[in-house]
What does this fold into?
Amino acid sequence: PPGCRHRKEGFPMTVQSIRIITFSPTHSSLNAAKAVASAFDCPVEVEDITTSWREPHSAPFSSGELLIASVPVYGGRIPAFVEPYLRSLQGNGAVACPVVVYGNRAYEDALLELGDILAGDGFLPVAGAVFVAEHSMTAKVATGRPSKGELAEGKAFGEQLKAKLAKDDLSRPEIPGNRPYKERKPSGGDPMYPATKENCIGCGICAKGCPMQIISREDFCTIIAPENCIRCCACVKNCPAGAMHFDSPAFAALQQMMEENFVGEHQPEFYL
It folds into this structure.
């Protein structure tokens, strides 16, 4: 039958279900993955590991499933701390589409790296997608992206992926990037971490949504281990009262640098 592990060569492959696994502090990576998945008429399950990446628990895949793995780009690479989770996945011959989302600077080796990890897990990376999103640290870079039009492009790409699989084409596309991947730079200088204004309403959304668990759940104005902040700004963007902010000069300098240098209109990229 279509999608089974012992499918005959040349028999159309039907995706029976989709599993999205995403690390998405400000929801851009999740929205990009959902756009691609929306082209398929089958059940879609979302595993958002934004706050659960420390404990790999994803069930093994079967060959009738499609994995859409979606993560943001940090310094031209995938986030280092989610790599163990991703490497724990069991593909068992399922097809996969890696998706990376970057803040309008460059995605460099991230898409290639994510595809390599999935291939090492036993998946068949048959496609790849790159989206641009509003930068987590400043709304003045790639403001409001991915746009509705770009998400529609993601759905159109999903239709192309569905057509590729229907032709029994399980080939891996050529993806830009370098091996070995770009070296990760150690974070240096003074820590940059959020502060809470007096208009905090005590809802706790910031603490619940912090990937690094640095905001105290007993006192939302207290930052635990500030050196672990990754500046994803989930706390800032998800705060209903606008009470979370970064007030350090170093953070302001980074914002200014990005606003001066990363305003070009990069476009989504799709690989089949």
Observations:
- The longest strand covers residues 65-72.
- Helices lie at 28-37, 83-87, 110-120, 148-166, 205-209, 234-238, 249-261.
- The chain is about 25% helix and 15% strand.
- Residues 1-8 have pLDDT under 50 and may be disordered.
